């Protein structure tokens, strides 16, 4: 029976796009996740950064050393109107957004002096709790932004970001090895180094065997021989492998730890997909984004592009052909989702042949009455789910 609540379903295996989670997130929410971690819409932040919770009295001066290590849980969801406005914005524009909110709140608070009647004063008092909540939220997110700014202005962060963007844009990976070695020498956290090496491996079907051995020795010398097991686990997962001459673009299945034959559907040729799905967008409008590439300052996640192949065909085709894109990529979804879903991935078959994994469509068949109802509403004999 077709679902009465889900009209269509798009399922993408995580293995199809392992590049995106290896990149540094550049939205406000993404940077908070990178720096502090977000779990169940909550983040634990040191009180030395965001202060005590509202209404909580600071401890005595003698407890100052312990106070510095205290953590405070903050809720990060749409119940916080300011966070809802900031969460998906590229971090480059968060400062101006906060400044705009601060000016608005200051103006609203000063307006109390213009109240001339008791009813106007009563209205101001009624709005006061909401104003105080917004003020507390502004203080919290301003503190988080200042901390994130320190992080993003550090030389290490910018060198890591430079390597990532060079790799995804198709630069010769060997040209990035000196920078990675320098980061290891600077004692950059091991997870950051592993993300860079796994990114190179995923994009290029592995590292050259001599390069993999070289970095394995560097990591063990710099971070300790206990990380033999760490490297073994990453290699077993298929995220960090040696490239073979027979399969220059081979991407091993996660958990396989070994190479297979170069069959269709077993590899992702990023050199081809980068062009056919326009994964790299040179000009990104961070102020008023019209493409998902703004999230990574120029790189569009492959998994999102696959969804756009179904839901936003015209927007994606305009990008691929180099023409002007729609002013809002979401418009296509509202205006042509029915026709897009009915044709699935049509128009992008050549691109899909260069992406690992099988691609197929399924049409749900229901009872005759349900089928007729959908035929009347959508003009189709059945409901197609793209899987």
List the topology elements.
Layout: H1 28-35, E1 42-46, H2 47-50, H3 64-68, E2 71-75, H4 81-86, H5 94-110, H6 118-152, H7 155-168, H8 177-185, H9 190-204, H10 209-223, H11 228-236, H12 270-276, H13 302-311, H14 313-320, H15 331-343, H16 349-352, E3 361-364, H17 368-378, E4 383-386
Helix pairs in contact: 1-6, 5-6, 7-9
Give an account of the 3D structure.
Helix content is 49%, strand content 5%. Helix 1 packs across helix 6 (118-152) and helix 7 (155-168) packs parallel to helix 9 (190-204). A two-stranded antiparallel ribbon has the order 1-2. A two-stranded antiparallel sheet has the order 3-4. The chain is globular, with a radius of gyration of 25 Å. The chain is mainly alpha-helical and 387 residues long.
């Amino acid at each position: 029976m077709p679902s009465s609540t889900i009209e269509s379903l798009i399922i993408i295996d995580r293995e199809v796009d392992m590049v995106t989670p290896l990149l540094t997130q550049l939205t406000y929410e993404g940077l908070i996740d990178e720096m502090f971690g977000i779990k169940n819409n909550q983040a634990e932040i040191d009180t030395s950064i965001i202060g005590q919770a509202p209404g909580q009295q600071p401890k005595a001066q003698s407890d100052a050393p312990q106070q510095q290590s205290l953590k405070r849980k903050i809720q990060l969801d749409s119940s916080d109107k300011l966070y809802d406005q900031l969460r998906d914005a590229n971090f480059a524009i968060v400062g101006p957004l906060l400044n705009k909110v601060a000016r608005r709140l200051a103006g609203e608070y000063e307006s109390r002096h213009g109240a001339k009647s008791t009813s106007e004063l009563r209205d101001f008092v009624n709005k006061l709790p909401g104003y105080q909540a917004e003020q507390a939220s502004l203080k919290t997110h301003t503190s988080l932004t200042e901390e994130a700014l320190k992080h993003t202005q550090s030389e290490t962060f910018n060198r890591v970001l430079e390597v990532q963007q060079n790799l995804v844009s198709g630069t010769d990976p060997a040209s990035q090895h000196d920078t990675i070695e320098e980061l290891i020498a600077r004692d950059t956290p091991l997870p950051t180094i592993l993300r860079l090496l796994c990114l190179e491996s995923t994009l290029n079907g592995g590292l050259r065997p001599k390069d993999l051995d070289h970095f394995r020795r560097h990591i063990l010398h710099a971070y300790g021989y206990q990380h033999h097991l760490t490297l073994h686990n990453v290699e077993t997962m298929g995220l960090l492998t040696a490239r073979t001459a027979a399969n220059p673009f081979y991407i091993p299945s996660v958990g396989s730890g070994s190479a297979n034959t170069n069959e269709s559907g077993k590899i992702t040729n990023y050199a081809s997909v980068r062009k056919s799905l326009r994964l790299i967008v040179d000009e990104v409008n961070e102020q008023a984004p019209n493409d998902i590439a703004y999230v990574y300052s120029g790189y569009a996640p492959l998994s999102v592009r696959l969804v756009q192949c179904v839901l936003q065909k015209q927007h994606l085709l305009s990008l691929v052909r180099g023409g002007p894109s729609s002013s809002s990529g979401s418009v296509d979804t509202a205006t042509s989702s029915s026709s897009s879903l009915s044709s699935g991935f049509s128009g992008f078959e050549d691109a899909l042949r260069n992406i690992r994994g099988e691609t197929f469509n399924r049409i749900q068949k229901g009872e005759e009455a349900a089928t007729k109802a959908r035929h009347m509403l959508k003009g189709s004999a059945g409901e197609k789910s793209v899987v």
